[in-house]
Amino acid sequence: MKPPHAPAACASRSGRLTTALAETEARLAELTATRKVIDGLTPPNHATAPTETATATVYQRIVTTFNEHPAKVFRVHDLHEHLGLPTDEPSINVTRSRLGRLTRQGFLTQPGRGRYQKRT
């Protein structure tokens, strides 16, 4: 009979804990992004840190654009041009990530690869 803390049992438990930690960290990142979106939708007199305000403002502009054009399908580059944002690759990738979060949160749909539209 093996003792309860045999190497195989510890390795199995360690693997489960590592997976649970990774899932929890991913969920925390999504909640942080959600918080930034919510902060961007709060009244202007709501005090936030300067970096949070800048990020929230971009999220708010993205959300407003999709609310104003609910039937329009945007590509990331087109959205950047519409908002007057830089169109360099790093900026595009950040927005692509933001749109992915909004899609996972159920605000947007992805009718095609690289295309985003407001969920109706």
Determine the strand fraction and express it as a percent band: 5-15%
Cα end-to-end separation: 60 Å
Low-confidence residue ranges? none
Number of E strands: 3
What would the average pLDDT be, to the nearest integer? 82
Class, according to the CATH hierarchy? Mainly Alpha
Helical content band: 55-70%
Describe the structure in brief.
The chain is mainly α and 120 residues long. Helices cover 65% and strands 9% of the residues.
3D structure, described in words:
The protein is mainly alpha-helical. It has a single domain (31-118), classed as Arc Repressor Mutant, subunit A (Orthogonal Bundle), CATH 1.10.10. It is 65% helix and 9% strand. Strand 2 (108-112) and strand 3 form a beta hairpin. Helix 1 (7-41) packs across helix 2.
Features:
120 residues, Arc Repressor Mutant, subunit A, 65% helix, mainly alpha, three-stranded antiparallel β-sheet
Question: How would the blueprint of this fold be written?
Answer:
Layout: H1 7-41, H2 50-68, E1 74-75, H3 76-83, H4 89-104, E2 108-112, E3 115-118
Antiparallel strand pairs: 1-3, 2-3
Helix pairs in contact: 1-2
